[in-house]
Amino acid sequence: MSVEKTPNLILVYDIVDDRKRTKIADVCLDYGLDRIQYSAFVGWLIPAKQQELFTKIRRILGKSPGNVQLLPICADDWKKRRVIDQPDKG
């Protein structure tokens, strides 16, 4: 029986290079993060894994232009979030 953990991080990025952006998304998924927007993920990782993920992303990005932000959050902040999620009916 698995216990669902409250997300403790938000990771967002703005990267021009399509190939690198795709690789970074794949790494986020490999670490079990959930995609909430095209370039935004949430999930739960211990701090050592957060650092490991960020190091991998830094390596993938290299010297290419881009902005990546990993924001640690606490359970209280997660509970306070507000969401509008309306499906596309088109």
Key features of this structure:
single chain, 90 residues, alpha+beta, Alpha-Beta Plaits, 4-stranded antiparallel beta sheet, 3 helices, 4 strands, 38% helix, 24% strand
Structure description:
The mean pLDDT is 94. The relative contact order is 0.26. The protein has three helices and four strands, in the order βαββαβα. With 90 residues, the protein is of the alpha+beta class.
Give me the Rg, rounded: 14 Å
Instruction: Tell me the CATH architecture.
Output: 2-Layer Sandwich
Number of strands: 4
Q: Please write the string of helix (H) and strand (E) elements.
A: EHEEHEH
Catalogue the unreliable spans: none
- What is the CATH top level name? Alpha Beta
Which of globular, elongated, flat, extended, rod-shaped describes the shape? Answer: globular
Spatial order of strands in the largest sheet: 2-3-1-4
Write down the domain tally.
1
Helix percentage range: 25-40%
What would you say about this model in short?
38% of the residues lie in helices and 24% in strands. It has helices at residues 18-30, 47-61, 75-80, and strands at residues 9-15, 34-37, 40-43, 66-72.
What is this structure's SSE topology?
Layout: E1 9-15, H1 18-30, E2 34-37, E3 40-43, H2 47-61, E4 66-72, H3 75-80
Antiparallel strand pairs: 1-3, 1-4, 2-3
EC number: 3.1.-.-
GO molecular function, one term: metal ion binding
Protein name: CRISPR-associated endoribonuclease Cas2
